[in-house]
Amino acid sequence: MATKVVATAFGGPEVLSVVQADVPEPGPGEVVIAVKAAGINPFDHKVVAGATGAAPERLPLPVGLEVAGMVTAVGPDATGPAGPVTVGDEVVAQPVTGGYADTVVVPAGVVVPKPPAVDWPVAGSILMVGGTAEHALQVADAKAGETLLVHGAAGSVGQIAVQLAVRDGVRVIGTAGTSNHELLRSYGAIPVTYGPGLADRVRAIAPDGVDAAIDTVGTDEAVDTSLELVTDHRRIVSIAAFGRADSGIVLISGDDPETHVRANAWRRLLPAAADGSLKVVVTRTYPLVEAAEALQFVRDGHAGGKVVLVP
Ligand SMILES: NC(=O)c1ccc[n+]([C@@H]2O[C@H](COP(=O)([O-])OP(=O)(O)OC[C@H]3O[C@@H](n4cnc5c(N)ncnc54)[C@H](OP(=O)(O)O)[C@@H]3O)[C@@H](O)[C@H]2O)c1
Predict the structure, then answer these.
(1) What is the side-by-side order of every strand in the sheet holding 250-251?
(2) For 48-100, what is each residue's pLDDT tens digit?
(3) What is the mean pLDDT of the chain?
(4) pLDDT score recorded for residue 255
(5) I need a labelling partner for 87 at 20 to 30 A (CA). Which of 144, 147, 216, 308 fits?
(6) Domain count, the chain
């Protein structure tokens, strides 16, 4: 039997239940993966809460967007972006449906090889946030020598956006709670505490102005500070302020038609994680049976990095 975690109602993390199911059989173009790590994302608690649809016929609702694991079975024509997928391959798959499980069946089109040097928790949690960070950086278009403001810089998306921008010679100012300032300094960013007076604190650090901003938080403070400091509002990109669509900033999501940058992000992110040039902080791992506690920790909003289920 396979074990998986499903939402049995729409609500808080407490609606998650561990259930048994038949081990899935792969159909044409499908791959079965024995999951070693399943990344948790804030989007998961929004889905469980019914934010993407709360029709009762969707229940029980599978949860989880990304996994890493070992291929245990393949259907006919199981070819991924890197070539044919075979039994025994160590792989990463994203996006998937129902990643909170010890066994998943996924389309081969989302299955890519896991570099041996990338450990399972990192492999199972890097692509969703990393692809989002790459997408946000592409839209913000910050170039070497420019100044980029990242809101929520110590979050999972923020940490990757900071590291990639610093690598490209961008001067990065990142908002975070004080306990995360040292981490941001270690990435080469200039930390600044969020909260009242943020715009003045950023101005003091960047008297010549801010060229672009990435908001991973979605608060009015993040959006309004960006609007105040960045002249070209089309270089303010948010992944979370969907209530501020009328402000002139650019909102991005995985549903955007131009998201090939996300689909191809594995080609850059996995080698960078393997050679150590990109750090992914995994702050906690939980067994599958503690998925509700894990999702609650992510929902609280200060995980400081990735939270991963290890079935
Ligand atoms: N649109 C998309 O394509 C897309 C894709 C991925 C994620 N998202 C969304 O983006 C958001 C961030 O995702 P994530 O995975 O990076 O989350 P995360 O790892 O949980 O990070 C959240 C960060 O927000 C910071 N924060 C909390 N309250 C804040 C405040 N009032 N002001 C400034 N910063 C604050 C926290 O910083 P401190 O710990 O330093 O306080 C924390 O580091 C989520 O809402 C997620 O659903 C959207």
Answers:
(1) 190-192, 171-175, 147-151, 212-215, 236-238, 250-251
(2) 999 999 999 999 999 999 999 999 999 999 999 999 999 999 999 999 999 99
(3) 97
(4) 84
(5) 308
(6) 2
Percent of the chain with pLDDT over 70: 100
Nearest CA to ligand 1 atom 24: 152
For residues 288 and 285, give the distance between their C-alpha atoms in angstroms, rounded to a whole number.
10
How far does the centroid of ligand 1 lie from the alpha carbon of residue 239, in Å?
Answer: 9
The answer on 144 and 108 residing in a single domain is: no
Helix (H) or strand (E) holding 307: strand 306-309
287 plus 240 within the same structural domain: no
Residues 34, 97, single domain; the answer is yes
Which domain range does residue 199 map to? 128-251
What's the pLDDT tens digit per position in 141-168?
Answer: 999 999 999 999 999 999 999 999 999 9
Nearest Cα residue to 68 out of 28, 106, 22, 42:
106
Q: Give the Å distances, CA to CA, from 308 to 33, 82, 213.
A: 17, 25, 28
Please, which residues bridge with residue 151 across strands? 215
Same domain, 122 and 6: yes
pLDDT band at 258 (very low <50, low <70, confident <90, very high): low
Mean pLDDT throughout 216-233? Answer: 98
Residues 134, 113: one domain? no
Q: Which tokens is 187 given?
A: 């990435």
Domain end residue (candidates: 233, 251, 269): 251
Tokens coding 218: 């979605």
Query: How far is ligand 1, taken at its centre, from the CA of residue 21, in Å?
Result: 33
Given the CA of residue 179, which atom of ligand 1 is nearest to it? 40
The set of protein residues with a Cβ atom below 6 angstroms from ligand 1 is 41-43, 129, 132, 151-152, 154-158, 175-177, 180, 194, 216-219, 239-240, 252-254, 298, 301-304
252 phi and psi, to 5 degrees?
-125, 150
* Side-chain-facing half-sphere of 185: CA atoms under 13 Å: 8
